[in-house]
Amino acid sequence: MTVEGTHNLWGDLHSPESSPAESDFTVIGIPFDGLASARTGAALAPQRIRYWSRHLAPFSEDRTRLGGMRICDLGDIKIVDARHDFEQVRKSVAQLPNIPILLGGGHSVSIPILQGQRQRFAGQRLGVLWVDAHPDLCDEFDGSPLSHACTLRRGLDAGIAPQDICMVGLRSWEEQELDLIENGQLNVYSMQQIADHGMKVVAAEVRGILSACDAIHISLDIDALDPSVAPGTGIPDCGGLTMREVLTLLKALQGLPLVGLDLVEVSPPLDPSEATVFAALKIIMEFIAVLARSATV
Length: 297
Prior knowledge:
Shape: globular
Largest sheet: 8 strands, parallel
Order of helices and strands: EHEHEHEHEHEHHEHEH
Number of helices: 9
Strand content: 15-25%
Structural class: alpha/beta
Radius of gyration: 17 Å
Number of strands: 8
Protein backbone atom coordinates (compact mmCIF):
# COMPACT_ATOMS: atom_id res chain seq x y z
CA MET A 1 0.00 0.00 0.00
CA THR A 2 1.33 3.44 -0.91
CA VAL A 3 -0.31 6.49 0.59
CA GLU A 4 1.21 9.94 0.29
CA GLY A 5 2.05 11.36 3.70
CA THR A 6 0.29 14.44 5.02
CA HIS A 7 3.40 15.36 7.04
CA ASN A 8 7.11 14.61 6.96
CA LEU A 9 8.78 11.75 8.81
CA TRP A 10 7.90 11.56 12.50
CA GLY A 11 5.12 14.11 12.25
CA ASP A 12 7.48 16.83 10.97
CA LEU A 13 9.90 16.37 13.90
CA HIS A 14 12.62 14.67 11.86
CA SER A 15 15.57 16.86 10.90
CA PRO A 16 17.56 15.10 8.15
CA GLU A 17 20.41 17.55 8.48
CA SER A 18 20.77 17.13 12.26
CA SER A 19 23.05 14.77 14.15
CA PRO A 20 22.10 13.09 17.42
CA ALA A 21 24.06 15.77 19.28
CA GLU A 22 21.82 18.41 17.69
CA SER A 23 18.56 16.55 18.37
CA ASP A 24 16.41 15.64 21.34
CA PHE A 25 15.78 12.06 20.23
CA THR A 26 17.51 9.47 18.07
CA VAL A 27 15.40 6.82 16.36
CA ILE A 28 17.04 3.51 15.50
CA GLY A 29 15.24 0.52 14.01
CA ILE A 30 16.33 -3.02 14.83
CA PRO A 31 14.36 -5.19 12.36
CA PHE A 32 15.13 -8.59 13.87
CA ASP A 33 12.77 -11.32 15.07
CA GLY A 34 15.03 -14.33 14.58
CA LEU A 35 14.77 -15.41 18.22
CA ALA A 36 10.98 -15.28 18.50
CA SER A 37 9.49 -18.42 20.03
CA ALA A 38 6.16 -18.19 18.21
CA ARG A 39 4.93 -16.08 15.30
CA THR A 40 7.32 -13.74 13.53
CA GLY A 41 6.79 -10.53 11.57
CA ALA A 42 8.16 -7.99 14.05
CA ALA A 43 11.18 -7.44 11.81
CA LEU A 44 8.86 -5.47 9.52
CA ALA A 45 7.74 -3.06 12.24
CA PRO A 46 10.36 -0.28 11.91
CA GLN A 47 9.50 0.29 8.25
CA ARG A 48 5.74 0.40 8.84
CA ILE A 49 5.99 2.58 11.94
CA ARG A 50 8.13 5.08 10.08
CA TYR A 51 5.83 4.96 7.06
CA TRP A 52 2.71 5.87 9.00
CA SER A 53 4.55 8.45 11.12
CA ARG A 54 4.17 10.75 8.11
CA HIS A 55 0.45 10.93 8.84
CA LEU A 56 0.85 12.33 12.34
CA ALA A 57 0.67 15.98 13.33
CA PRO A 58 3.25 17.29 15.84
CA PHE A 59 0.83 17.41 18.79
CA SER A 60 0.00 15.21 21.73
CA GLU A 61 -3.59 14.36 22.56
CA ASP A 62 -3.74 17.20 25.10
CA ARG A 63 -2.50 19.63 22.42
CA THR A 64 1.06 19.80 23.68
CA ARG A 65 2.98 21.30 20.77
CA LEU A 66 5.85 19.04 19.82
CA GLY A 67 7.28 21.24 17.10
CA GLY A 68 10.18 22.33 19.29
CA MET A 69 11.43 18.75 19.60
CA ARG A 70 13.85 17.34 17.04
CA ILE A 71 14.34 13.73 15.97
CA CYS A 72 17.41 12.32 14.23
CA ASP A 73 16.54 9.01 12.54
CA LEU A 74 19.68 6.94 11.96
CA GLY A 75 17.88 4.17 10.08
CA ASP A 76 18.21 0.50 10.96
CA ILE A 77 20.88 -1.72 12.46
CA LYS A 78 20.81 -5.01 10.60
CA ILE A 79 21.05 -8.14 12.73
CA VAL A 80 22.19 -11.37 11.07
CA ASP A 81 23.81 -13.21 13.96
CA ALA A 82 22.49 -11.97 17.31
CA ARG A 83 25.50 -13.24 19.23
CA HIS A 84 27.74 -10.98 17.17
CA ASP A 85 25.54 -8.15 15.89
CA PHE A 86 23.87 -7.29 19.19
CA GLU A 87 27.20 -5.74 20.13
CA GLN A 88 26.67 -3.03 17.52
CA VAL A 89 23.33 -2.15 19.13
CA ARG A 90 24.92 -1.97 22.57
CA LYS A 91 27.70 0.32 21.35
CA SER A 92 25.30 2.56 19.44
CA VAL A 93 23.05 3.04 22.48
CA ALA A 94 25.96 3.55 24.89
CA GLN A 95 27.39 6.36 22.74
CA LEU A 96 24.20 8.36 22.17
CA PRO A 97 24.14 11.91 23.54
CA ASN A 98 20.35 12.20 23.58
CA ILE A 99 17.23 10.09 24.18
CA PRO A 100 16.93 6.95 22.04
CA ILE A 101 13.66 5.66 20.64
CA LEU A 102 14.36 2.12 19.49
CA LEU A 103 12.03 0.18 17.24
CA GLY A 104 11.99 -3.61 17.38
CA GLY A 105 11.96 -6.25 16.26
CA GLY A 106 11.34 -8.91 18.82
CA HIS A 107 11.99 -8.23 22.50
CA SER A 108 15.39 -9.92 22.28
CA VAL A 109 16.72 -6.71 20.69
CA SER A 110 16.21 -5.02 24.06
CA ILE A 111 19.02 -7.13 25.53
CA PRO A 112 21.79 -4.97 24.01
CA ILE A 113 19.64 -1.87 24.52
CA LEU A 114 19.53 -2.46 28.28
CA GLN A 115 23.24 -3.28 28.27
CA GLY A 116 23.98 -0.06 26.39
CA GLN A 117 21.89 2.03 28.75
CA ARG A 118 23.54 0.39 31.77
CA GLN A 119 26.94 1.32 30.29
CA ARG A 120 25.80 4.82 29.37
CA PHE A 121 24.68 5.53 32.93
CA ALA A 122 27.47 3.66 34.71
CA GLY A 123 27.71 4.61 38.34
CA GLN A 124 24.12 5.85 38.42
CA ARG A 125 20.86 4.18 39.37
CA LEU A 126 19.23 3.07 36.14
CA GLY A 127 15.53 2.35 36.54
CA VAL A 128 13.52 0.29 34.09
CA LEU A 129 9.80 0.49 33.47
CA TRP A 130 8.96 -2.88 31.94
CA VAL A 131 5.52 -2.91 30.29
CA ASP A 132 4.78 -6.40 29.02
CA ALA A 133 2.43 -9.36 29.29
CA HIS A 134 5.47 -11.49 30.08
CA PRO A 135 8.33 -11.14 32.60
CA ASP A 136 10.98 -12.41 30.13
CA LEU A 137 13.07 -13.59 33.07
CA CYS A 138 14.00 -17.02 31.72
CA ASP A 139 17.69 -17.86 31.93
CA GLU A 140 17.41 -19.80 28.68
CA PHE A 141 14.48 -20.44 26.36
CA ASP A 142 14.28 -22.54 23.21
CA GLY A 143 17.95 -23.31 23.74
CA SER A 144 19.07 -19.67 23.67
CA PRO A 145 20.00 -17.21 26.43
CA LEU A 146 19.21 -14.42 23.92
CA SER A 147 15.58 -15.44 23.41
CA HIS A 148 12.92 -12.78 23.76
CA ALA A 149 11.87 -14.71 26.88
CA CYS A 150 15.26 -13.95 28.49
CA THR A 151 15.52 -10.20 27.93
CA LEU A 152 15.01 -8.86 31.43
CA ARG A 153 17.11 -11.67 32.93
CA ARG A 154 20.00 -10.41 30.78
CA GLY A 155 19.24 -6.90 32.02
CA LEU A 156 19.72 -8.10 35.59
CA ASP A 157 22.96 -9.76 34.52
CA ALA A 158 24.07 -6.39 33.12
CA GLY A 159 23.79 -4.86 36.58
CA ILE A 160 20.33 -3.28 36.65
CA ALA A 161 19.17 -3.57 40.26
CA PRO A 162 15.92 -5.52 40.71
CA GLN A 163 14.53 -2.95 43.14
CA ASP A 164 14.86 -0.33 40.37
CA ILE A 165 12.66 -2.32 37.97
CA CYS A 166 8.88 -1.87 37.80
CA MET A 167 7.02 -4.51 35.79
CA VAL A 168 3.51 -3.56 34.69
CA GLY A 169 0.85 -5.59 32.90
CA LEU A 170 2.15 -9.09 33.59
CA ARG A 171 -0.23 -11.99 33.13
CA SER A 172 1.74 -14.94 31.73
CA TRP A 173 4.48 -16.93 33.47
CA GLU A 174 7.12 -19.62 32.98
CA GLU A 175 8.08 -21.90 35.87
CA GLN A 176 11.72 -20.80 35.76
CA GLU A 177 10.69 -17.16 36.28
CA LEU A 178 8.65 -17.59 39.44
CA ASP A 179 11.45 -17.51 42.02
CA LEU A 180 12.63 -14.11 40.77
CA ILE A 181 9.05 -12.86 40.53
CA GLU A 182 8.19 -13.95 44.07
CA ASN A 183 11.53 -13.45 45.86
CA GLY A 184 13.74 -11.31 43.66
CA GLN A 185 12.93 -7.77 44.92
CA LEU A 186 11.37 -6.79 41.60
CA ASN A 187 8.36 -4.47 41.71
CA VAL A 188 5.60 -6.49 40.02
CA TYR A 189 2.18 -5.14 39.02
CA SER A 190 0.14 -7.86 37.40
CA MET A 191 -2.99 -7.23 35.35
CA GLN A 192 -5.01 -8.63 38.24
CA GLN A 193 -3.56 -5.96 40.55
CA ILE A 194 -4.27 -3.25 37.98
CA ALA A 195 -7.84 -4.48 37.61
CA ASP A 196 -8.31 -4.52 41.39
CA HIS A 197 -6.71 -1.15 42.22
CA GLY A 198 -6.80 0.87 38.99
CA MET A 199 -3.97 2.23 36.88
CA LYS A 200 -3.86 5.61 38.62
CA VAL A 201 -2.96 3.93 41.88
CA VAL A 202 -0.41 1.63 40.24
CA ALA A 203 1.11 4.49 38.22
CA ALA A 204 1.54 6.58 41.37
CA GLU A 205 3.37 3.69 43.06
CA VAL A 206 5.58 3.18 40.00
CA ARG A 207 6.43 6.87 39.95
CA GLY A 208 7.34 6.77 43.63
CA ILE A 209 9.72 3.86 43.10
CA LEU A 210 11.38 5.16 39.94
CA SER A 211 11.75 8.68 41.32
CA ALA A 212 14.71 7.36 43.33
CA CYS A 213 16.58 6.58 40.09
CA ASP A 214 18.98 8.85 38.22
CA ALA A 215 17.82 7.64 34.81
CA ILE A 216 14.79 5.65 33.62
CA HIS A 217 14.46 3.50 30.51
CA ILE A 218 11.09 2.23 29.29
CA SER A 219 10.88 -1.13 27.55
CA LEU A 220 7.41 -1.67 26.13
CA ASP A 221 6.26 -4.86 24.48
CA ILE A 222 3.10 -4.16 22.48
CA ASP A 223 1.62 -7.42 23.80
CA ALA A 224 1.13 -5.61 27.11
CA LEU A 225 -1.94 -4.16 25.40
CA ASP A 226 -5.02 -6.33 25.17
CA PRO A 227 -5.26 -8.09 21.77
CA SER A 228 -8.54 -6.26 21.15
CA VAL A 229 -6.39 -3.11 20.91
CA ALA A 230 -3.19 -4.53 19.41
CA PRO A 231 -3.71 -7.93 17.77
CA GLY A 232 -0.56 -7.71 15.64
CA THR A 233 1.93 -9.38 17.94
CA GLY A 234 3.57 -12.77 18.16
CA ILE A 235 2.00 -14.02 21.40
CA PRO A 236 -1.23 -12.11 22.13
CA ASP A 237 -2.56 -12.63 25.65
CA CYS A 238 -6.10 -11.59 26.53
CA GLY A 239 -6.95 -9.52 29.59
CA GLY A 240 -4.32 -6.87 28.93
CA LEU A 241 -3.93 -3.13 29.24
CA THR A 242 -6.10 -0.61 27.47
CA MET A 243 -4.41 2.19 25.57
CA ARG A 244 -5.78 4.65 28.12
CA GLU A 245 -4.06 2.74 30.92
CA VAL A 246 -0.74 2.83 29.06
CA LEU A 247 -1.06 6.57 28.51
CA THR A 248 -1.98 7.11 32.16
CA LEU A 249 1.18 5.25 33.15
CA LEU A 250 3.36 7.28 30.77
CA LYS A 251 1.94 10.60 31.92
CA ALA A 252 2.58 9.67 35.56
CA LEU A 253 6.30 9.82 34.78
CA GLN A 254 6.16 13.52 33.96
CA GLY A 255 9.29 15.29 35.25
CA LEU A 256 11.28 12.11 35.93
CA PRO A 257 14.65 11.54 34.17
CA LEU A 258 13.46 9.46 31.20
CA VAL A 259 16.41 8.42 29.05
CA GLY A 260 15.00 6.04 26.46
CA LEU A 261 12.15 3.99 25.04
CA ASP A 262 12.24 0.72 23.19
CA LEU A 263 9.01 -0.50 21.62
CA VAL A 264 8.96 -4.09 20.43
CA GLU A 265 6.96 -7.07 19.15
CA VAL A 266 4.74 -5.14 16.70
CA SER A 267 4.10 -7.59 13.86
CA PRO A 268 2.42 -5.81 10.91
CA PRO A 269 1.62 -9.02 8.96
CA LEU A 270 -0.50 -10.25 11.87
CA ASP A 271 -2.76 -7.17 11.82
CA PRO A 272 -3.96 -6.19 8.34
CA SER A 273 -5.77 -3.19 9.83
CA GLU A 274 -2.42 -1.86 11.11
CA ALA A 275 -4.14 -0.73 14.31
CA THR A 276 -1.18 -2.21 16.20
CA VAL A 277 1.24 0.00 14.28
CA PHE A 278 -0.87 3.05 15.08
CA ALA A 279 -0.97 2.04 18.76
CA ALA A 280 2.83 1.98 18.72
CA LEU A 281 2.93 5.41 17.10
CA LYS A 282 0.54 6.80 19.71
CA ILE A 283 2.80 5.58 22.48
CA ILE A 284 5.89 7.07 20.84
CA MET A 285 4.31 10.47 20.31
CA GLU A 286 2.93 10.62 23.84
CA PHE A 287 6.37 9.62 25.19
CA ILE A 288 7.83 12.56 23.27
CA ALA A 289 5.10 14.77 24.71
CA VAL A 290 6.04 13.79 28.28
CA LEU A 291 9.59 14.96 27.58
CA ALA A 292 8.36 18.10 25.80
CA ARG A 293 6.23 19.07 28.80
CA SER A 294 9.11 18.36 31.17
CA ALA A 295 11.37 20.66 29.13
CA THR A 296 8.97 23.57 29.59
CA VAL A 297 8.44 23.15 33.33
